[in-house]
Amino acid sequence: MIASPPRTVRIGSRKSQLALVQTHWVQSELQKAFPGHTFEVHTMSTQGDKILDVALAKIGDKGLFTKELEVGMLNGDIDFAVHSLKDLPTRLPEGLMLGCVTEREDPADALVVHEKHQDKQLDTLPEGAVIGTSSLRRLAQLRHHYPHLAFKDVRGNLNTRLAKLDAGEYDALILAVAGLKRLGMGDRIHQNIPSDVSLHAVGQGALGIECRTEDPEILSVLKVLEHTPTAQRCYAERAFLRELEGGCQVPIGVHTVIEGDTLTLTGLVASLDGQTLIKDTVSGAPDTAEQLGIDLAHRLKEQGAQAVLDEIFATIQRG
Ligand SMILES: NCc1[nH]cc(CCC(=O)O)c1CC(=O)O
């Protein structure tokens, strides 16, 4: 038998600090598992990294943070790409697939406050306090529960956002717990936002590794990093979002748990003004995750979710 030759595997990544932390973790785990291969990181800028002065909701989300990496895979310049799963569209280009979902960090959102509000929580922030978020999902849910707060868009990487907060442009920010922890800034988390106040984004806190459909060797390499319970939860979440035809820039939130042999998926569609929240829950076997997501989407549509989404798409296009 002839041993397969050592192969150099090229990993694609965005250049942001968070993307690099995540990609270097994948690189080192795979290097340990496959000492005969060499894993190299190749960075690329995506559209989402370049356009920093326009609200995300207005640019849309069709692969804003992923397209250049996908072209790289299809060209053969890179072998796979590491993404924050929540930035990966639910429909992938022909020839590419979601090859691996890694173990999830805490998927919740976090409240990060200006130092003058150290003694406050979401419930006790004063009337008119300015909350920075670029996510319509966070905006709609927080507006619903805290109509006396003011909301303002914020863009840029984590350090830029935190600098704007500390400079007094905002009273507080809503950021993902996972991103803060991965960048060693867990000490800035002032409050974990409970799921009854705000459901998190689909795929939040997990990494999604995308690869070519016709590359079984790479796929088998990636599978060593797969975390089955996270993957099942995220397949349910992604099927729900796909069925609703929403991307990460629509007010759709989820929550999932696996207890014993049961996967429970809660999902929500919200109107931008926070007036209408349509929310429901389904449960079933974890290996039927995709069907659970589809079923929940249909239930929410029966309860009026489509009209809420149509109104949002119309508003964003007018904006
Ligand atoms: N949309 C930006 C983005 N994409 C992934 C994360 C980090 C959290 C994660 O891995 O889900 C963030 C930052 C944020 O939402 O605060």
From TrEMBL:
Database matches in InterPro entries: HemC (IPR000860), Porphobilin_deaminase_cofac_BS (IPR022419), Porphobilin_deaminase_N (IPR022417), Porphobilinogen_deaminase_C (IPR022418), Porphobilinogen_deaminase_C_sf (IPR036803)
Cofactor note: Binds 1 dipyrromethane group covalently.
Pfam families: Porphobil_deam (PF01379), Porphobil_deamC (PF03900)
Record-annotated Porphobilinogen deaminase N-terminal domain positions: 9-218
Sites of S-(dipyrrolylmethanemethyl)cysteine modification: C248
Domain Porphobilinogen deaminase C-terminal: 232-301
Cofactor: dipyrromethane
SUPFAM superfamilies: Periplasmic binding protein-like II, Porphobilinogen deaminase (hydroxymethylbilane synthase), C-terminal domain
Extra remark beyond the main annotation: The porphobilinogen subunits are added to the dipyrromethane group.
UniProt subunit comment: Monomer.
Protein's name according to its UniProt entry: Porphobilinogen deaminase
Organism: Thermoleptolyngbya sichuanensis A183
Gene coding for it: hemC
